[in-house]
Amino acid sequence: MINRFLSDVTDGRYDGYPELGVDTAEMENPALRTWAGMDDGETGVRVNYVHAGSSAQGLIGKGDVILAVDGRTVANDGSVSDGDGRVPFGMLVDRRQTGESIPLRILQGGTRRDIDVPLKAYAPGDTRGNLYDQYPRYYIYGGLIFVPLDRETLKTYGAAWLARADRNLIHEFFIRPLFEPGVQLQERVVLLRRLDHPVNVDMAWFRNLVVERINGQEIRGMDDLVESLENHQGEFHLIEFSHLGRFSVLDRQKAEDAHQEILERYGIEEDRNL
Amino acid sequence: MNSKGMPVLWFVLLLALVLPAAADTVVADTVVADNDSVAQYENSVVGLDVTYQEWDEDRPWAKMIPKHRTAAAVLVDGAHLLTTAQMVDQATLIRLVTFGRTRPVEPRVVRVDPDINLALLVIEDQEILKSLKSVPLAESTPTAGVLRSVRWSGQQLESASSRVIGIMVERSWGGRLDHAFLHMRTDMGSGGWGEPVFANGSLVGLTVSQKEQRSRAIPVELLRAFFDRAREQGPLAGFPSLGLSWQVNEDRALAEFLGQQGEPRGVLIREVPWGTSARGVLEPRDILLELAGNPIDSEGYYNHPHLGRLKFSHLLVESYRPGDTVEALVLREGKELTVSISLRTYPAALDLIPARRDGPPPYVVAGGLVIRELDLPYLGTWGAEWDDSAPIGLSTRYNLNRSGQTRERRRYVLITATLPAEYNVGYQDLRDVVIEEVNGRPVSSIRDVVQGLAAPSGGFQVFRLAPDSGREVVVLDAATFDQATKEILETYRVPEAVRLPEEPLPEGGGDCPGSQ
Asked: Which ipTM value was assigned to this complex?
């Protein structure tokens, strides 16, 4: 692992681990293997999910069976032999650098294929992974604090954030992309909290909510959010959240008039870091 | 799964609660008026010795060890006893206690309405009846003053003063009705087990819960409404409910945005679930201004003629019956309009994730896969704090979509566990995953699982799971399925492979008659 890191940084930049980008399930049950079209004695794991924008996208599909990786047979539990022991097949991918490729043998639509998968780092890694040395991004409007939905936001819940973070946000971050793979490639925006002021204090919804639309426009990132709030000319801002028909409204003129005062009252120097 | 021990703890707690608490007995009560002596109630208040047995929600074919509770009941009309539905829930034996002694008499349960949480029983033993006397129902529930809570404690008639705190509209035990509860500060220890509450010789309430000294009772207005329905012929008429979700309308910007001028009033409708009275009549983002001529304020309160300010949902429960029509004034897109709503009950069974207050858990054991519907009793196996401790896939389904039943999806059906066997090798770690299809048949309720299994596809039983399951399919061999299931049932002592719900799911009916 240390050698791999040193080799990664020889060009002066750390690219990180490449990811194949598939979620797989074990195939210990013989009926499952027969159903999937495998021969007696053939082993492998079945692909449940292909991450949008990953190395595997376009090459491997849901329902494919991964039979071998880098020339080594994948067992029904997903392991491959490695020296004296066995390791999960993903380890063989981890040992490569991005830009390299890895040979796979897969069973796809009844045909056994040998494919070569060019490896890249995981595209949504910026929001899915840990971030270092980056000042957190945020945007404040009318006392409402918006942040991107990323791992750093969730980690503000402390060391046990996985258990303690708001469950709605955990669901949005980990579970919803499984149902709607597209959302994983979009940056999603959370209304994190409110700096109380008469312009916003009666809002029914203001905490830990994923913003779906503002003034009818889909919000697919912090830029969309800023644009739709700052360019809207109507009397009110309509902010719609995911699930349960929840929405809030801000009086645009009052919010803009109060903006500076709210920042001063709460000792905040900048209304944004984008 | 670490809090599965909770039910045992709860049981111990219950035991502690039902033990007679002599120290708490209030002997004299000078606050109550002289004409309200305790002795006048001794022939009217009885006890019920109830043995009950809950289902083991993890092993839905089995029952837990029998438990015991002591409930109070009150004789209201010749031979009829009123108590709460909770007190006779899952009963295996009910014995009558008169004058503090258990008699060889089993009152018969005539009617139970889990939605309103009341039960009517009848005493058929004429000898016992000679010693008893029924008590009249009061005209209305007092909103102030000191009342009397009465029960038998050993052979002592125990009376405690209960000072009225107020009348509050809250969710009923059945999970689907919001109605008024009488809140009292009581001197009674460990009450809340159906003790009748009296004032001036009349019944004014039946207690349903107590936390420390704060006691909660169903007010007499609803006792009477249930009692009237319970004595009618034919199926028990329930209580109507709009069944919608709403929020307060206190945000002036939002009210103005919806076209309301001046001080916000009325409540904002958020969702109108499938199958409810208001479906197709009221719409999300309507502001409900008046119901049956009663103005509703921005927090949802109306003015009850006797009980004061109450949340508006109580209005229908007390004064209307299913089939009645009620008019509502709404603000929609800036214009006021009057709509007419034909009222129905909103049985908990119309929730996608229901409270299931009646009947055993339906299940299927298929090739060792334990399959059941997701409901509140199952979530309860993670303990009182299940919202934090249940798997996130289940708790978020509940939090985001519990009332989201549709014609296409009436229940979430789960594989909760696998009874390990050679036949189902590889699936033994499956826990609490949602089934989407069985052999290509979409699964809307557990009946679809049974029907799907009857038509295997190409020699296999194929279960397609929801995307958050960590596995897309579970495939079992169809040729050996029946034999394998039979052997697994024997090994694990499961009496039957299938238990379907006793009643078909209620008809959601879609939109309300008269809707646009």
From this structure: 0.88
